[in-house]
Protein backbone atom coordinates (compact mmCIF):
# COMPACT_ATOMS: atom_id res chain seq x y z
CA UNK A 1 0.00 0.00 0.00
CA UNK A 2 1.32 3.40 -0.96
CA UNK A 3 2.32 5.69 1.87
CA UNK A 4 -0.26 8.35 0.98
CA UNK A 5 -3.07 5.78 0.78
CA UNK A 6 -1.94 4.26 4.07
CA UNK A 7 -2.00 7.68 5.74
CA UNK A 8 -5.47 8.42 4.36
CA UNK A 9 -6.75 5.11 5.70
CA UNK A 10 -5.09 5.76 9.03
CA UNK A 11 -6.73 9.19 9.22
CA UNK A 12 -10.09 7.59 8.44
CA UNK A 13 -9.69 5.04 11.25
CA UNK A 14 -8.50 7.81 13.55
CA UNK A 15 -11.67 9.82 12.85
CA UNK A 16 -13.87 6.82 13.56
CA UNK A 17 -11.96 6.03 16.74
CA UNK A 18 -11.94 9.62 17.98
CA UNK A 19 -15.60 10.41 17.45
CA UNK A 20 -16.82 7.08 18.79
CA UNK A 21 -14.96 7.82 22.02
CA UNK A 22 -16.09 11.45 22.26
CA UNK A 23 -19.76 10.99 21.33
CA UNK A 24 -20.39 7.73 23.18
CA UNK A 25 -18.27 8.30 26.30
CA UNK A 26 -21.36 9.23 28.33
CA UNK A 27 -22.82 5.79 27.51
CA UNK A 28 -19.63 3.72 27.49
CA UNK A 29 -18.53 4.79 30.97
CA UNK A 30 -21.65 3.64 32.90
CA UNK A 31 -21.92 0.42 30.87
CA UNK A 32 -18.25 -0.41 31.48
CA UNK A 33 -18.15 0.48 35.19
CA UNK A 34 -21.36 -1.41 35.97
CA UNK A 35 -20.08 -4.43 34.02
CA UNK A 36 -16.83 -4.41 35.97
CA UNK A 37 -18.71 -4.35 39.27
CA UNK A 38 -21.04 -7.20 38.24
CA UNK A 39 -18.12 -9.57 37.69
CA UNK A 40 -18.13 -9.86 41.48
CA UNK A 41 -21.91 -9.56 41.95
CA UNK A 42 -22.16 -12.26 44.66
CA UNK A 43 -19.37 -10.69 46.69
CA UNK A 44 -20.84 -7.23 46.09
CA UNK A 45 -24.30 -8.25 47.29
CA UNK A 46 -22.84 -9.89 50.40
CA UNK A 47 -20.73 -6.80 51.12
CA UNK A 48 -23.63 -4.37 50.70
CA UNK A 49 -26.16 -6.60 52.50
CA UNK A 50 -24.25 -8.56 55.14
CA UNK A 51 -27.41 -9.27 57.12
CA UNK A 52 -28.73 -11.51 54.35
CA UNK A 53 -25.78 -13.86 54.77
CA UNK A 54 -25.52 -13.89 58.59
CA UNK A 55 -26.62 -17.53 58.84
CA UNK A 56 -26.05 -19.71 61.87
CA UNK A 57 -25.62 -22.73 59.61
CA UNK A 58 -25.95 -23.38 55.87
CA UNK A 59 -27.52 -26.80 56.48
CA UNK A 60 -31.18 -26.78 55.42
CA UNK A 61 -32.89 -28.30 58.48
CA UNK A 62 -36.51 -27.31 57.80
CA UNK A 63 -39.06 -28.64 55.35
CA UNK A 64 -40.05 -26.60 52.27
CA UNK A 65 -43.44 -25.83 53.83
CA UNK A 66 -41.73 -24.52 56.95
CA UNK A 67 -39.53 -22.21 54.88
CA UNK A 68 -42.58 -20.98 52.95
CA UNK A 69 -44.44 -20.37 56.20
CA UNK A 70 -41.43 -18.59 57.73
CA UNK A 71 -41.42 -16.07 54.88
CA UNK A 72 -45.15 -15.31 55.15
CA UNK A 73 -44.96 -12.45 57.71
CA UNK A 74 -43.15 -10.13 55.27
CA UNK A 75 -45.12 -11.03 52.13
CA UNK A 76 -47.67 -8.60 50.72
CA UNK A 77 -51.37 -9.51 50.74
CA UNK A 78 -52.12 -11.93 47.92
CA UNK A 79 -48.50 -12.92 47.24
CA UNK A 80 -47.82 -16.62 46.82
CA UNK A 81 -44.56 -18.50 47.20
CA UNK A 82 -43.18 -19.40 43.78
CA UNK A 83 -39.60 -20.59 44.35
CA UNK A 84 -37.41 -21.76 47.20
CA UNK A 85 -33.70 -21.50 46.40
CA UNK A 86 -31.37 -23.48 48.66
CA UNK A 87 -27.79 -22.48 49.58
CA UNK A 88 -25.51 -22.63 46.54
CA UNK A 89 -22.52 -24.91 46.97
CA UNK A 90 -23.67 -25.57 50.52
CA UNK A 91 -23.15 -21.98 51.70
CA UNK A 92 -25.45 -19.04 52.35
CA UNK A 93 -29.14 -18.49 53.11
CA UNK A 94 -32.34 -20.03 51.82
CA UNK A 95 -34.12 -17.56 49.54
CA UNK A 96 -37.90 -17.64 49.16
CA UNK A 97 -39.44 -15.79 46.21
CA UNK A 98 -43.12 -14.87 46.09
CA UNK A 99 -45.28 -13.04 43.57
CA UNK A 100 -48.82 -11.73 43.30
CA UNK A 101 -51.33 -13.21 40.86
CA UNK A 102 -51.46 -9.92 38.94
CA UNK A 103 -48.83 -7.69 37.32
CA UNK A 104 -49.47 -4.89 39.77
CA UNK A 105 -46.29 -3.08 40.62
CA UNK A 106 -44.52 -4.27 37.47
CA UNK A 107 -42.33 -1.86 35.59
CA UNK A 108 -43.75 -0.95 32.20
CA UNK A 109 -42.70 -3.64 29.76
CA UNK A 110 -40.84 -5.53 32.46
CA UNK A 111 -41.49 -8.57 34.63
CA UNK A 112 -43.75 -8.36 37.69
CA UNK A 113 -42.06 -7.30 40.89
CA UNK A 114 -41.49 -10.21 43.24
CA UNK A 115 -40.69 -10.27 46.93
CA UNK A 116 -37.52 -12.05 47.97
CA UNK A 117 -37.00 -13.24 51.54
CA UNK A 118 -33.65 -14.41 52.90
CA UNK A 119 -33.92 -17.05 55.65
CA UNK A 120 -31.50 -18.75 58.00
CA UNK A 121 -31.38 -22.36 56.70
CA UNK A 122 -31.08 -23.78 60.20
CA UNK A 123 -33.85 -21.85 61.95
CA UNK A 124 -36.00 -20.20 59.28
CA UNK A 125 -35.36 -16.78 60.83
CA UNK A 126 -35.98 -13.90 58.43
CA UNK A 127 -32.64 -12.24 57.66
CA UNK A 128 -33.88 -9.71 55.10
CA UNK A 129 -36.59 -9.08 52.52
CA UNK A 130 -36.72 -6.83 49.46
CA UNK A 131 -38.54 -6.38 46.14
CA UNK A 132 -36.84 -8.06 43.21
CA UNK A 133 -36.28 -4.69 41.50
CA UNK A 134 -34.59 -3.04 44.49
CA UNK A 135 -30.99 -2.79 45.64
CA UNK A 136 -27.63 -1.66 44.28
CA UNK A 137 -26.81 -4.95 42.52
CA UNK A 138 -30.15 -4.98 40.72
CA UNK A 139 -29.60 -1.34 39.74
CA UNK A 140 -26.22 -2.26 38.23
CA UNK A 141 -27.78 -5.14 36.27
CA UNK A 142 -30.44 -2.87 34.76
CA UNK A 143 -27.92 -0.10 34.09
CA UNK A 144 -25.54 -2.48 32.34
CA UNK A 145 -28.23 -4.26 30.36
CA UNK A 146 -30.46 -1.39 29.30
CA UNK A 147 -29.05 1.92 30.64
CA UNK A 148 -32.31 2.20 32.65
CA UNK A 149 -34.16 2.89 29.37
CA UNK A 150 -37.42 0.89 29.09
CA UNK A 151 -38.16 -0.84 25.82
CA UNK A 152 -35.23 0.12 23.58
CA UNK A 153 -32.52 0.13 26.25
CA UNK A 154 -31.19 -3.33 25.39
CA UNK A 155 -30.86 -2.38 21.71
CA UNK A 156 -29.07 0.86 22.64
CA UNK A 157 -26.54 -1.12 24.68
CA UNK A 158 -26.14 -3.51 21.75
CA UNK A 159 -25.31 -0.69 19.34
CA UNK A 160 -22.85 0.73 21.86
CA UNK A 161 -21.21 -2.71 21.73
CA UNK A 162 -21.00 -2.45 17.93
CA UNK A 163 -19.19 0.87 18.13
CA UNK A 164 -16.94 -0.33 20.96
CA UNK A 165 -15.91 -3.27 18.78
CA UNK A 166 -15.01 -0.85 15.97
CA UNK A 167 -13.15 1.34 18.45
CA UNK A 168 -11.17 -1.64 19.80
CA UNK A 169 -10.06 -2.81 16.36
CA UNK A 170 -9.22 0.67 15.09
CA UNK A 171 -7.33 1.28 18.33
CA UNK A 172 -4.97 -1.58 17.51
CA UNK A 173 -4.37 -0.07 14.05
CA UNK A 174 -3.67 3.37 15.53
CA UNK A 175 -1.37 1.96 18.21
CA UNK A 176 0.83 0.27 15.59
CA UNK A 177 3.86 2.49 14.87
CA UNK A 178 3.75 4.21 11.49
CA UNK A 179 7.46 3.65 11.04
CA UNK A 180 10.22 1.78 12.79
CA UNK A 181 10.11 -1.40 14.85
CA UNK A 182 6.95 -2.59 16.59
CA UNK A 183 8.94 -2.25 19.82
CA UNK A 184 8.41 1.47 19.45
CA UNK A 185 4.74 0.94 20.24
CA UNK A 186 5.55 -0.37 23.71
CA UNK A 187 7.52 2.72 24.72
CA UNK A 188 5.82 4.83 27.34
CA UNK A 189 6.95 8.21 26.07
CA UNK A 190 5.49 8.02 22.57
CA UNK A 191 3.54 11.20 23.33
CA UNK A 192 4.51 14.25 25.40
CA UNK A 193 1.47 14.07 27.70
CA UNK A 194 0.73 11.52 30.42
CA UNK A 195 -2.91 11.14 29.35
CA UNK A 196 -1.90 10.24 25.78
CA UNK A 197 0.67 7.66 26.88
CA UNK A 198 -1.81 6.13 29.32
CA UNK A 199 -4.39 5.95 26.53
CA UNK A 200 -2.01 4.25 24.08
CA UNK A 201 -0.62 1.66 26.48
CA UNK A 202 -3.78 0.62 28.34
CA UNK A 203 -5.73 0.69 25.10
CA UNK A 204 -3.36 -1.78 23.42
CA UNK A 205 -3.32 -4.31 26.25
CA UNK A 206 -7.09 -4.32 26.70
CA UNK A 207 -8.03 -4.09 23.00
CA UNK A 208 -8.54 -7.80 22.34
CA UNK A 209 -10.46 -8.55 25.59
CA UNK A 210 -12.53 -5.41 25.02
CA UNK A 211 -13.33 -6.51 21.46
CA UNK A 212 -14.46 -9.88 22.84
CA UNK A 213 -16.65 -8.22 25.50
CA UNK A 214 -18.13 -5.90 22.89
CA UNK A 215 -18.93 -8.76 20.52
CA UNK A 216 -20.46 -10.97 23.22
CA UNK A 217 -22.45 -7.98 24.46
CA UNK A 218 -23.79 -7.53 20.93
CA UNK A 219 -24.75 -11.22 20.83
CA UNK A 220 -26.65 -10.94 24.12
CA UNK A 221 -28.42 -7.74 23.03
CA UNK A 222 -29.45 -9.04 19.59
CA UNK A 223 -30.34 -12.74 20.08
CA UNK A 224 -32.88 -12.57 17.27
CA UNK A 225 -30.10 -11.72 14.81
CA UNK A 226 -27.22 -13.84 16.09
CA UNK A 227 -29.25 -16.88 17.20
CA UNK A 228 -30.16 -18.11 13.69
CA UNK A 229 -26.57 -17.59 12.57
CA UNK A 230 -25.49 -20.20 15.12
CA UNK A 231 -28.28 -22.60 14.24
CA UNK A 232 -30.49 -21.67 17.22
CA UNK A 233 -34.21 -21.23 16.55
CA UNK A 234 -35.35 -17.64 16.07
CA UNK A 235 -37.04 -16.08 19.07
CA UNK A 236 -40.66 -15.13 18.60
CA UNK A 237 -42.78 -12.84 20.70
CA UNK A 238 -40.10 -11.94 23.21
CA UNK A 239 -39.84 -13.44 26.67
CA UNK A 240 -42.85 -15.39 27.99
CA UNK A 241 -45.01 -13.57 30.52
CA UNK A 242 -44.49 -15.01 34.03
CA UNK A 243 -47.49 -16.78 35.49
CA UNK A 244 -48.58 -16.69 39.12
CA UNK A 245 -48.23 -19.81 41.31
CA UNK A 246 -51.34 -21.90 41.89
CA UNK A 247 -53.38 -20.70 44.86
CA UNK A 248 -54.00 -24.22 46.20
CA UNK A 249 -51.71 -26.90 44.73
CA UNK A 250 -52.91 -30.49 45.06
CA UNK A 251 -49.54 -31.78 46.26
CA UNK A 252 -47.51 -30.61 49.23
CA UNK A 253 -43.92 -29.47 48.71
CA UNK A 254 -42.70 -32.37 50.85
CA UNK A 255 -44.54 -34.91 48.70
CA UNK A 256 -43.03 -33.34 45.60
CA UNK A 257 -39.48 -33.55 46.96
CA UNK A 258 -40.09 -37.15 48.03
CA UNK A 259 -41.33 -38.06 44.54
CA UNK A 260 -38.35 -36.39 42.89
CA UNK A 261 -35.74 -37.82 45.27
CA UNK A 262 -35.44 -41.03 43.25
CA UNK A 263 -33.92 -38.99 40.45
CA UNK A 264 -31.73 -36.78 42.65
CA UNK A 265 -28.14 -36.46 41.50
CA UNK A 266 -26.88 -34.13 44.21
CA UNK A 267 -28.00 -31.46 46.62
CA UNK A 268 -31.31 -29.75 45.94
CA UNK A 269 -30.95 -26.32 44.32
CA UNK A 270 -34.47 -25.03 43.76
CA UNK A 271 -38.08 -26.02 44.30
CA UNK A 272 -40.52 -24.27 41.94
CA UNK A 273 -44.27 -24.18 42.51
CA UNK A 274 -46.76 -25.03 39.72
CA UNK A 275 -48.28 -22.03 37.97
CA UNK A 276 -51.55 -21.18 36.30
CA UNK A 277 -49.93 -21.73 32.89
CA UNK A 278 -47.69 -24.68 33.75
CA UNK A 279 -49.24 -26.84 36.51
CA UNK A 280 -46.06 -28.82 37.19
CA UNK A 281 -43.70 -28.71 40.13
CA UNK A 282 -40.00 -28.51 39.29
CA UNK A 283 -37.15 -29.69 41.49
CA UNK A 284 -33.59 -28.94 40.41
CA UNK A 285 -30.59 -30.85 41.75
CA UNK A 286 -26.87 -30.36 41.39
CA UNK A 287 -25.33 -32.30 38.50
CA UNK A 288 -22.06 -32.10 36.67
CA UNK A 289 -22.47 -30.00 33.55
CA UNK A 290 -25.92 -28.60 34.30
CA UNK A 291 -28.63 -28.94 36.97
CA UNK A 292 -30.94 -31.97 36.76
CA UNK A 293 -34.57 -30.83 36.75
CA UNK A 294 -37.35 -33.22 37.71
CA UNK A 295 -40.96 -32.31 36.85
CA UNK A 296 -43.93 -33.57 38.86
CA UNK A 297 -47.51 -33.03 37.64
CA UNK A 298 -49.49 -31.39 40.42
CA UNK A 299 -52.78 -33.01 39.41
CA UNK A 300 -51.70 -36.65 39.11
CA UNK A 301 -48.22 -36.81 40.56
CA UNK A 302 -46.62 -38.17 37.36
CA UNK A 303 -42.85 -37.79 37.48
CA UNK A 304 -40.81 -36.72 34.46
CA UNK A 305 -37.16 -37.71 34.98
CA UNK A 306 -34.44 -35.15 34.20
CA UNK A 307 -33.18 -34.93 30.67
CA UNK A 308 -29.50 -35.71 29.95
CA UNK A 309 -27.18 -32.69 30.11
CA UNK A 310 -27.29 -30.75 26.87
CA UNK A 311 -24.15 -29.55 25.14
CA UNK A 312 -23.50 -25.92 25.92
CA UNK A 313 -25.06 -23.62 23.35
CA UNK A 314 -23.16 -20.83 21.64
CA UNK A 315 -25.48 -18.31 23.31
CA UNK A 316 -24.58 -19.69 26.75
CA UNK A 317 -20.88 -19.66 25.90
CA UNK A 318 -21.13 -16.04 24.79
CA UNK A 319 -22.80 -15.08 28.06
CA UNK A 320 -20.19 -16.92 30.15
CA UNK A 321 -17.39 -15.21 28.25
CA UNK A 322 -19.14 -11.90 28.85
CA UNK A 323 -19.87 -12.20 32.58
CA UNK A 324 -17.16 -14.68 33.61
CA UNK A 325 -19.48 -17.34 35.06
CA UNK A 326 -17.46 -20.50 35.62
CA UNK A 327 -14.44 -19.07 33.78
CA UNK A 328 -12.02 -18.84 36.70
CA UNK A 329 -10.45 -15.95 38.56
CA UNK A 330 -7.94 -15.00 35.85
CA UNK A 331 -10.66 -14.52 33.24
CA UNK A 332 -12.83 -12.63 35.74
CA UNK A 333 -9.95 -10.25 36.42
CA UNK A 334 -9.56 -9.70 32.67
CA UNK A 335 -13.29 -8.90 32.38
CA UNK A 336 -13.06 -6.58 35.39
CA UNK A 337 -10.21 -4.67 33.75
CA UNK A 338 -12.20 -4.72 30.51
CA UNK A 339 -14.80 -2.69 32.38
CA UNK A 340 -12.51 -0.29 34.22
CA UNK A 341 -10.09 0.54 31.40
CA UNK A 342 -12.71 1.71 28.83
CA UNK A 343 -13.74 4.38 31.33
CA UNK A 344 -10.09 5.45 31.57
CA UNK A 345 -9.80 5.41 27.79
CA UNK A 346 -12.92 7.55 27.47
CA UNK A 347 -11.59 10.18 29.85
CA UNK A 348 -8.05 10.22 28.44
CA UNK A 349 -9.39 10.27 24.88
CA UNK A 350 -11.43 13.39 25.60
CA UNK A 351 -8.39 14.95 27.30
CA UNK A 352 -6.29 14.22 24.19
CA UNK A 353 -8.96 15.80 21.97
CA UNK A 354 -9.16 18.91 24.16
CA UNK A 355 -5.36 19.19 24.26
CA UNK A 356 -5.24 18.94 20.46
CA UNK A 357 -7.85 21.67 20.12
CA UNK A 358 -5.87 23.86 22.51
CA UNK A 359 -2.61 23.18 20.66
CA UNK A 360 -4.15 23.93 17.29
CA UNK A 361 -5.73 27.08 18.66
CA UNK A 362 -2.40 28.27 20.05
CA UNK A 363 -0.67 27.44 16.77
CA UNK A 364 -3.27 29.38 14.78
CA UNK A 365 -2.95 32.39 17.10
CA UNK A 366 0.85 32.37 16.87
CA UNK A 367 0.67 32.13 13.09
CA UNK A 368 -1.82 35.01 12.98
CA UNK A 369 0.33 37.10 15.30
CA UNK A 370 3.41 36.37 13.21
CA UNK A 371 1.64 37.46 10.04
CA UNK A 372 0.40 40.59 11.74
CA UNK A 373 3.90 41.46 12.96
CA UNK A 374 5.53 40.89 9.57
CA UNK A 375 6.55 44.17 7.83
CA UNK A 376 4.46 45.18 4.89
CA UNK A 377 6.19 44.87 1.52
Automatic annotation (TrEMBL):
Residue spans crossing the bilayer: 20-40, 156-182, 203-222, 329-354
UniProt keyword terms in alphabetical order: Membrane, Transmembrane, Transmembrane helix
Domain of life assignment: Bacteria
Pfam family for this entry, one: PepSY_TM
PANTHER family for the chain: IRON-REGULATED INNER MEMBRANE PROTEIN-RELATED
Protein known as: PepSY domain-containing protein
Source organism of this protein record: Allosphingosinicella flava
Species lineage: Bacteria, Pseudomonadati, Pseudomonadota, Alphaproteobacteria, Sphingomonadales
Amino acid sequence: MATSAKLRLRNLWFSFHKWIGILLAVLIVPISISGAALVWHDWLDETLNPGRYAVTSSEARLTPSQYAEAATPVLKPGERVSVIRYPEQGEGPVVVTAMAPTREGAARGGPPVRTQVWLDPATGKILDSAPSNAGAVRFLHVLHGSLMVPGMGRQIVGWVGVFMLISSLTGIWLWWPVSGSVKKGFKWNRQPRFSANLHHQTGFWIAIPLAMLSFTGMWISFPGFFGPLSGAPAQKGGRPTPSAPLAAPAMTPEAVVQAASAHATGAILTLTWPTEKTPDWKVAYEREGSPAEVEIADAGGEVTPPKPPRPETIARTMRRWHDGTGMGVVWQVVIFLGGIIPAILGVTGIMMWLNTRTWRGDLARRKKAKLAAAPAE
